Structure formats: structure tokens, C-alpha cells
């Protein structure tokens, strides 16, 4: 079979699956329409089949053609059976032909082998593509995502099937679906699609609900009155018992927020929170149809029914059935609160169980745009196809149903991480909607929004901004500037601006979002907390850690007041706080926040969850910073295992874990292992995201940092230049990340001794950064430090002192007196002053650095010991032997047992001090230890080794003189 025939059949199989999905109608009224649609799909299938020679299969397709033309379209069961038969025969035909071709290929290979043809030549010949149903195709990261999605989808439909079977057992005559419900409101929706404003929820003052907090306050006031209604129902219907009528806990505010967003965002009139009728809810469980009818009759006669639905006649999208009522309950003077009552059949409720896949698919059945049964059919078709590939895309892009394509686009983007394919579908949808509805229609506006978000995920901030601003204009025209959906788009625009590096405008966008949400939703709302976190995210990038931390704490206060202190949202905010605290040098407090978040995530989701992996990564980063490399490696490896098991080995999140692991391995002197891990991270990002993506540029940057720290500036510069090229291409020449990469290139040149060129790169970086982030940012301080280091190497010590002083001033102001980077500036200034001969100034700077290191690392910290060695060396130069001995003795106590050059210097200096007070025995012992280390590290010819050898000889000579004297 030729490759073109193979391709035609695979496309035809998708047509069969689509026709099968169509012929499973969800109510009888749709049967004729379903038959017509199925016939349309099959007509195209049959036309396609005429393009290839399929032998006996062609005859079967002709029989199907006659059946489609001659049958009554409303009678679908025979058609469904026939379609399924044809599909099976198609798959069998493909498999049989492939097997014959494999056998033929094997035989030909054997013949070629006998004739001497090379394996390489044989390998270049065409091999048929595997069929869509073949399970032996290698898995990649996308396939892992698809596999998990299709498992969920299978269980979703399996749940429906089981529900249908159980309903047939419980109610074979379908009498429950005939119970007639009546709403006293005569329906809350007007003919023009708007809703009756009088049925919106009211607050305690009789005004339409504006804020969720007011809705919950009114619910608490109305709760006793609702309980009275339930008690009256129970009293008047003795066939029910106390266990039959139960008031549920007040609805969780997080779910209420989610439901308002999903279902009522576009309901007119708003606000959307005013349409939440299930904050107060109760269930009535009946054992017979008679009891359910009695409850229905009682409700008709005793309460005002705002809205109702017999969901035995029209089941929910996941197959659940009950009688649903929204009733108006008077509770204070003329005030009333709308409450929900669900009337269940005991046998069905007991057997239905918990559908964990309901919340996963629920967003695709919310909103007014499409009937649920249409989405069910499309999901059914997708399940039948069983994979997302080019054949499915080709089929979809031929469709004329924009709402169908939008559904698949959302699924590809939100659930399957098929961003490129989602973009293709959204672009097709946009063309169709602009033609049919116009550019200014609210539905078209949502497509602009999806296009923007998809492009943002790909790292294309400029194109994302274009579509998001179109979405903003459309939504503003349709919904008004104070609508919560407008706030969401402002936030998404802020995200795009943040990616572009335009921090000032990003902050304006997120602040605008916060303002709209506080005004429309109230100050105590989860979306308001989300906005505080978004503002904090921008402030963090601007380097304003104090304000960012304050915004996060405000968000945390709101979340804890609504959700308690053990919710997953609270844990996520604690992770954000931990990140800021770590940047501020508050490592212990950061660790407490991270561990708290990890504990909550594990309790909420179990030990294998993406959020758990995220928390483990932050925990591991702090463990590495503390020198707990074994523990850090364990944390990062566990995070990697979770990500690989959930997302596949080639997912960008796995690249993050590999990067963390690389830097821990580097700290443990495993340079080869570290380089290997970074190469894996780069390979993953290059494959999954492409060369031109910010995360790919980050991999090049990280690799450069590792190479630079290991003394390979030439290769480091190559990595930094590649990073710079990608960032310039994506972000433009004036993005702060471009400035960061330019600084890195300069550092490489400085290590190579190309000081003038390095200085020029840092000057360019400074100009970019000052324009992008302003003069007060930690990256500006870093740049001044790089200036100072190069100027010192060039012998321009006064200029170097000025640059380091600027860095110190910025760090003290932005990061605080005892931040690690502030301490680094103090140390560099101290060394510079010491080299200039300003020993008194150096002593002050060393003391300031020592004060910071004591706070940061404690008396026993290696970094603290290093500062004491520097201070001791300077005091020896000042002939302050008593002060030097105190500092060096403390340093030696920490460094004892170390076998490095710092320990050697401390030993040598303390030996010199002991010699000055004529303790030659002690001095000789210390100089011998220093000599041993320096010989091992430097060899015999190094000046420091020679210096130690000379001091050993001198101390030994002095000992000999003492013995002669004695």
C-alpha cells in the first residue's frame, strides 16, 4: 500500500470516528440532525476512499455509500453498526498490508544482504508509517501528556456509561424523567437572552449583591430561615426521615469564585456573583418515585421556586441526575435569599460515587456559547481517535464549526500542551468568527484572548500583546471597563509586558487589575489576593523586595481569612514569600515558608504532584545555599522523578530540575556530572520549546555560569553569546535580560584578560539596564561591581573604589545591611583599600563585612572564617599581633581539618603571629601544616610554597637557637 493510500485511510478512520460520535445522540430531538451530520462526514469519507485502490475494502465502502444514500436518516443504530464495522475493516486492512510490507521488506533486506548491499543503503528506503491504533510507537513528552488526558477522558465516558446502566436498573420505565417541575418565576431568562434582574441575590440591605463577602454575610443571616423551610418539609412529609433532609455546609468560597468565573462571567445583567444560588444548599434523598413527586408537589405549594430542572430527563454533562430547585427564602422583613435544593433518588445517589474527572472537564461545559451535548460528541470523537496528530489536525481544519474548533483549541492549549496546534486552530476560528460575527463580538473577543495566551506561552510577548489588546477593546465595548473579565485581560497584558521587560507598564497593568477587582469584587476576595501576588511579581523583577513582600503578605492574609491556613492557594503564596525572603538573605525564614508549603501540598495532593515538585525545588535550592548538598540533591532528584512520571522526561519542567541538580553537583566538585545535567536541560528545552525561547536562552546562560566558575571563560563566552542572540531576537535590544547577558559576556572577556572590551560590554549593559529597570535595581549594583573589578585589574583603584561604593550603596538600600551581596561589596572594598595601603579604611570595611557574615552564617560559618583570615592578615600588616591572633585563632577553629588554600593562609598567618611572640614550637607546627597544603595545591615552585618553606626553616632555626641557649 502506498504512503498516500495509507494517509487517506487514516484520515478516513477519523471520519468514521466522528460519524460514530455524531450518531450517539443525547436526546431524541437531535436524532435527525445527528443523522444528517453523520451522512455529511461519511460522504466526504467515501469521496476520499475513491482516491486509492483498496481492493475488497473498496467494495465495503461502496455498500456503506448506498446505505447512507438510501436509509432514513433518523434510524441511526444500523448506521452506527455499519460505521464501526467499516472502521474495524479499515484498521485490519492497514495492519495486514503493513505486515505484508514488513515481510517483503525483510525478504528484500535478506536478498540485498546476500547481494552485498549495505545496511545504510537499506535504511534509507521508505518504511510505512505506523497506523493510528499501533501501541508500539515510542513515547515522547507530548505522548505522555496525551496518554494521561485520554485516560481521564476514557474514565469520564465510562462514568457516564455506568450511570446510564444504573439508571436503567433503577428506573427502567423512565418515570423519573416525567416528573413535571414548575418555576413560579416563569423562567429567569428573557427571550432576548438576558436574565430577570429581580432574581439576583441581595445583600443584607436589600441591594443587589456586588461583593462575594456580602453574599456570604447574607447567606449566614438567611441560614436559619432556610433550615425552617427544610424542617417544615420534613414535618409535612412523614414518609421522609431526619436523615433524608440534610443542609450541606456553606459552599467553599474558592469554588464559588471559580463557578462565578466559569458560568456567569457573560450573564447580563451582572454582577456575576449575584447569580450564585447554591451558597446555601440542601439535599433531599428519596427512596421512591412517589416520594420525589411528593417533595416536588410540596415545593410547588409552599415555597417560591425561582428556577428548576428535572435532570433525570436532561442529565448533567457527567451523567448525574436529580431534581434541582432554586427557591427564594424570606429571612428578614422583605429580604429573601435564593437557596438550592437537590432531590436525589437514594439508589442512584448511593451507586453513583465520586466523579473526580468532573472538575477536570467542567470548564468545557460552562458558559452560554454551546450546548453540552455538542461538546460531549466532540469529546467522544476525540476519545475514539485516541491521539492528537497531523491527521486529526487536517480533519479539524476542514471543519466549518468554529465552536467545535475552539473547544479543541482550548483542550490542546490547557490540557495537552499542544500549543502550536492550539494556535493553528485559534487562528482558523478567528477567521471564521470575524466573518460570521464581526471583530467586535464578545465571542470573537475570547478568541483574541486565547490567541494571546497561546503566544505568551510560546514566549512571543509582542504578538501576544497585539491579540490581548484586541481582546481588551472588544470586552471593554461589550462588558464595560469595570467588569471582572476586563480585570483578567489587564492582568494578562501585564504578564506579557513583564515578559517584554517593560516593568513600569506591567506594574500599571497589574495595579489596574487590582483596582477593578477591589471595586467590583470587594477587598476580601480570592481574585483580589491573586492581583496582589501579580503586583508582587512585578515588584520582585524591579528589585523592590520589601514592597513585593508586603504585597504577598496582604494576599496571604486575604487567602487565610477565606480558606484557612492549610489551603493549596495559601501554600503557593508561602512559596512566593519564601522566594522573596531568600533574595533578601533571610534564608532561615525562607526555608520555614518553603517547608510549610511543601507540607500543605503533600497533604492536599499527595506526594506525587507538580506543586510538590515545585516546592521541593525551592527547598533544595536553599539546602544547597546552606551547604547541605546531599539533602539538596535528594530534594531535586525527587522533584525530577515526580516531573518525569507526570509530564514525561522531555518536559521543560524537567529541564528546571536538571539545572538545579547541575549546580549542586558543581558545588560537590563533580564538574563532569554538572555539565552533563546542564546539557540534558538544554537538549530538553531546545527540543520542546525550540532554539528561540527564553527558557532555552536560560539554559545557555546557566551553562556559561558553570563554565566560568570552573575556569573556562572561552567556552563560557560562547554560551553567553548564544543566550544574548536569542534574547535580542525575542525581546529586542533593550530588554533587561539582554543587559544581564551582556554583563555575562563582559565577565568572560575579563577572565580572558580582554579588559577594555569587557568594560565596554558592561557599559552597554548598564545603559540597557538603567533604561529598562531604572537606576535602583540589584542588577545595576552587580554591574557597578563588575566595573570595579575590571578597574582594579587595570590599576585604576580610585575609579574601582567609586564603582564598588556605588554597588555597596545600592545593595545597602535595596537589600539591607546584612544581605550576602551587601557583605560581598564590603569585602571587595576592604581588599581594595588594603591593596591601596589604606589599612585603617580596610579594617573598617572588613569589620562591616564580618558583622554581616556573622548574622548570615554564624560564628562557625566557612565564609565568616574567610573574613576573619582577611582581617587577621591586615592586622599582621599593621603589626597588631594581638588583634590578629584573636581573629586568626577563631578562623583556625572553624577551618581545622580543611585541606585548602584558605586554611593554609590562616595557618601561615597565625604561625607568623606566634613567631612574633616567640612561640617557635607552635609556629613551626603551623607552618609545617601550611607548607604541606601549599605543596599539594601549588607544587614546590610556587612563591607561596617557597614562603612557607622559608618560614618553616626560620622557625626551626629559632628552635635550635633556643636549645643551644638552654
UniProtKB/TrEMBL annotation:
Region listing for Disordered, in residue ranges: 99-142, 936-966
Mapped TPR repeat ranges: 445-478, 529-562, 613-646, 904-937
Regions that span the bilayer: none
Keyword Repeat annotated: yes
PROSITE patterns on file: TPR
Domain of life (superkingdom): Eukaryota
InterPro entries tied to this protein: NT_sf, TPR-like_helical_dom_sf, TPR_rpt
Keyword match Repeat: yes
Keywords: Repeat, TPR repeat
Chain segments annotated as coiled-coil in the UniProt record: none
Pfam families referenced in this protein's UniProt entry, alphabetically: TPR_10 (PF13374), TPR_12 (PF13424), TPR_8 (PF13181)
Protein name: Nephrocystin-3
Organism for this UniProt entry: Cylindrotheca closterium
